[in-house]
């Protein structure tokens, strides 16, 4: 049997956003009015226990625990939440829609009579119907906006209510498909492996199905190393192109600079002698990209590929060139120089940047300055005839023999 792997035991598991603990905001956002109805339904089942209701209660307890541990396990919680919320809502509707039982009333002559009480449940019923309509609108909205928008097409809203579509991902993948060799290998972080393979039809080093932790750590090491060390790794992996996501131009927070610390942590797990997370922080323990950033951070391949030529760009007239909108700071190195790679393509909004790995140059053989002495041939004695050993003697009609 396989042991249960903790979310903190490996950096790859902890780096996935769906594996983070669920916040209270996520519970209210996904469940809406079912948040108060869920415990009410559980209490109703607990008061009238049966075999079926015990199963539902156990399901609710375990699903609530696991949904709090990992946000993606909210999918396992929602079925039992819907069941218990429906039970609570059914009891409430039955109580106020049905006729109340008659009450006994003692008359003046001592006799007992039954009296039917009249009540007006219209306010409660209208409130429940309004909440159900609001819940239906909420479900439609989050389905269309939060859970149905493709991750490769981004949209932003303008000040006047206009909608801007950012299609940089498809633009970059189309360029890869049309302008690179069919056998080219692309190095990127594993998040974009499926997209590159499916839309650009190019081979990637790691993707969403890579289970080899050391292979992902090697890619993270290349991203976190300086250009010279990273070039050796890329030569060993036979990399032709490198793809990075940069959101400093448009303020996109899901770029590779924000994911960079996870690359460092995963690489440190496999190569602790070369990569240490503390080197990428300031002496005060801050993760920065401005002038206070550490030298290791400024020399890393990820920093250079994201901010190459960015120091020449003015994104806001109120800020100096090289202002990163995502980190809200001016980059520390505005004059990034590349030696072993070259820029191949940058999308319209600088969201996707592609670099080509230069081929190694031929080794230059330096001529030795040390004079070489020529050997003098050996002289024979004067007047002595030379001789040739093993000379061939040819006789017609006979085999070849040698004279010794």
Secondary structure elements and their pairing?
Blueprint lengths: L10 H5 L8 H8 L2 H14 L3 H19 L4 H24 L5 E4 L5 E4 L6 H24 L8 E4 L5 E4 L1 H12 L5 E3 L5 H8 L2 E2 L8 H12 L2 H11 L3 E5 L10 H15 L24 H5 L1 H7 L15 E2 L4 E2 L10 E6 L5 E6 L33 E3 L7 E3 L1
Parallel strand pairs: 5-6, 5-7
Antiparallel strand pairs: 1-2, 3-4, 7-11, 8-9, 10-11, 12-13
How would you describe this protein?
There is one protein chain. This protein is an alpha+beta fold and 404 residues long. The chain contains 13 helices and 13 strands. Strand 3 (154-157) and strand 4 (163-166) form a beta hairpin. The longest helix has 24 residues, at 74-97. It is elongated and about 150 Å long. Residues 1-9 have low confidence and may be disordered.
Shape: elongated
End-to-end C-alpha gap: 81 Å
What portion of the residues fall into strands of 2 or more residues?
A: 5-15%
Mean pLDDT: 83
Largest sheet: 5 strands, mixed
Question: How many strand elements?
Answer: 13
Provide a brief overview of the structure.
The protein is an alpha+beta fold.
Keywords:
alpha+beta; 5-stranded mixed beta sheet; 404 residues
